[in-house]
Amino acid sequence: MSLEKLGYYLGLALSNAIYIGSITNKDELLIPFGVFFSDKGVRLFPFEAETQEEAHRIAQETIRQSEELLDGWCYGREGLIPLKDGANSDAYIIEVKLKEMEEPVIFIQFFEYPFKLTRSLVINAKKTVVDNILENSKEFEDALHSGAESHKVAGEHWYKFKDYI
């Protein structure tokens, strides 16, 4: 697994979600979106639908149909994550899967309104994947920041958020 690719595309997707969250109102949800990448380039697009559930279904179907043609993909969405104290927290959930991976790695970035990031980025993956990321955290973080800064709009705002990741 290429930690450089994993971090880079996570950064691109995460900066997209965070930037959109920082300019929208509390009652507006992030439209689920995909980042598909291959030797033909990178494509970022929304999965718009009447409901979040329908957008999620469309995203899953699009990923399933496209996966064989891609070097990898990211899928970002907003959700509520239950906490140990019984409360829920707003979060961006970003799944990243490279072609050589068996399953996606799920990253969770908590936030609250007025918009600010809370907690560090959470990694939900097999222990070997998490250990690899932690053992090579400098390489992974550098790639994440590089990917975030490459976003055509959100990249110029990344400096506001990068210290909270």
Features:
165 residues; alpha+beta; six-stranded antiparallel β-sheet; 6 strands; 31% strand; globular
Task: Describe this protein's structure.
This protein is α+β, with helices and mostly antiparallel strands. The chain has one domain (3-156). Helices cover 36% and strands 31% of the residues. It is built from four helices and six strands, in the order αββαββββαα. The protein has helices at 3-23, 52-66, 127-135, 137-150, and strands at residues 33-38, 41-46, 72-82, 88-98, 105-112, 116-124. The chain has a six-stranded antiparallel β-sheet with strand order 2-1-3-4-5-6, with helices on both faces. Strand 5 and strand 6 (116-124) form a beta hairpin. Helix 1 (3-23) crosses helix 4. It is globular and about 40 Å long. The model has no long low-confidence stretch (mean pLDDT 93).
Strand line-up across the major sheet: 2-1-3-4-5-6
β-strand percent reads 25-35%
Q: What's the gyration radius in Å?
A: 15 Å
How widely separated are the two ends? 22 Å
Sequence stretches where pLDDT stays below 50 over 5 or more residues? none
Could you say which structural class the secondary elements and strand pairing correspond to?
Answer: alpha+beta
